[in-house]
Design brief:
Layout lengths: L33 H16 L9 H8 L9 E6 H4 L4 H18 L1 H7 L5 H4 L4 E7 L5 E6 L5 H4 L5 H27 L6 E6 L5 H6 L1 H14 L4 E7 L5 H8 L5 H6 E3 L5 H5 L21 H4 L44 H8 L11
Parallel strand pairs: 3-4, 4-5, 5-6
Antiparallel strand pairs: 2-3
Helix pairs in contact: 1-4, 8-10, 10-15
């Protein structure tokens, strides 16, 4: 029996990495039905007729129809993502695509990913640590966030809410390309999600309350424009009572999403090391990795290895790359409201590695 393959379109699909998902599930790349392939074609055709010509690849279109929110890249993989986001309802997927394209233009995403310079990152990291670091046992990028030191009052003396959101978007774009393609090449199969570690050590109710406004905005960006990125989520050093609260919350989540989330206390090392190789996990979390200059600043992973890494496609774009986006103070937090409907809350939980629960990639 022939191995499953993504049904692609040479006009839009130019992938230099594997395109078959290891997840044998209907609607995922390489595992689509003839009806789903027809819906990809229908969605792309409608978008072309509406005047769109970029990001129409198959992977993106499929994501649109199965996940529950908006994505940012529109290749065949992209088309699939949009379709998954709307359960293969072509009209809803089309609206998601249109809304996402408008947001990308308004937010200046294409320019940001080329020109954003987060010079204040080392200072921000003294309060809020977030970084990608190597891969888990399945080959996916590992994304780490530490919440214990968050102090928005101190952070806003260093940066602004706007620049923090811009950095978030830039990191999502870099996850899409070059991080995930490099990981896919090394693994020999399509990888579209991350393994996220969220360290809750030192987090209390008062701290969560103080950053709620910021969390709401960045979570909306994640759930609306970068869905289908959660592979596994480990909530470690969960404070007393957290598991009970999550036990109530998970009753409102899709069972598939719940299976991806692991709430662990201070004795998390053995379970975490079952997913992330010890040599890839920073010493702070029980691993043996101790990158020169600190793991949080190394950006170590296949995306840095010439054997697997290739220049991101956005680097070849004709978009203006002449202006560096510097630190310009602002007190306004752009508002990106979650999508309406019953599925919005679910995707908010499912977007952490892609994911954000509530602030992760």
């Amino acid at each position: 029996m022939a191995a499953p393959q993504l049904k692609s379109d040479s006009k839009y699909d130019d992938f230099d990495y594997p395109t078959t998902s290891p997840t044998v599930q209907s609607g995922h790349p390489g595992h689509t039905t003839p009806e789903q392939d027809a819906q990809v074609y229908q969605l792309r055709t409608q978008l072309e007729q509406a005047g769109y010509s970029e990001r129409l690849d198959t992977l993106n279109m499929v994501r649109l129809n199965i996940s529950k929110n908006i994505s940012s890249d529109l290749n065949t993989s992209s088309q699939l993502r949009f379709l998954r986001a709307r359960k293969f309802n072509v009209n809803l997927a089309k609206q998601m695509f249109v809304d996402c394209e408008k947001w990308r233009k308004d937010f200046g995403v294409d320019n940001l990913v080329r020109n954003f310079d987060y010079k204040e990152k080392p200072e921000v990291h003294k309060y809020y640590i977030q970084y990608y670091h190597k891969t888990d046992k399945d080959g996916r990028p590992v994304y780490i966030e530490q919440y214990g030191g968050i102090d928005l009052t101190a952070m806003y003396k260093i940066t602004t809410a706007e620049r923090m959101q811009q950095n978030l978007v830039v990191e999502y774009e870099k996850l899409t390309d070059p991080r995930l393609p490099a990981c896919s090449r090394k693994a020999g199969q399509l990888l579209e999600t991350c393994c996220t570690i969220m360290d809750l050590k030192g987090v209390g109710l008062s701290k969560i309350t103080s950053v709620y406004g910021y969390l709401k905005n960045v979570t909306a960006i994640s759930q609306n424009y970068y869905p289908e990125r959660l592979g596994k989520l480990y909530l470690i050093n969960a404070p007393w009572g957290f598991s009970s609260v999550f036990g109530v919350v998970k009753g409102f989540l899709d069972p598939v999403t719940v299976q991806k989330i692991h709430v662990l206390g201070s004795g998390y090392q053995s379970e975490l090391l079952g997913q992330v190789p010890k040599e890839n996990l920073p010493k702070d979390f029980g691993g043996t990795c101790d990158c020169q200059g600190g793991c949080a600043f190394s950006d170590a992973g296949p995306w840095q290895d010439p054997q697997w890494a290739k220049p991101p496609k956005w680097a070849d774009s004709k978009a203006d790359a002449s202006t560096t986006i510097e630190h310009t103070p602002t007190s306004t937090i752009p508002t990106h409201q979650p999508q309406e409907g019953a599925d919005a809350g679910l995707e908010q939980k499912d977007s952490a590695a892609g994911q954000q629960v509530p602030m992760g990639q």
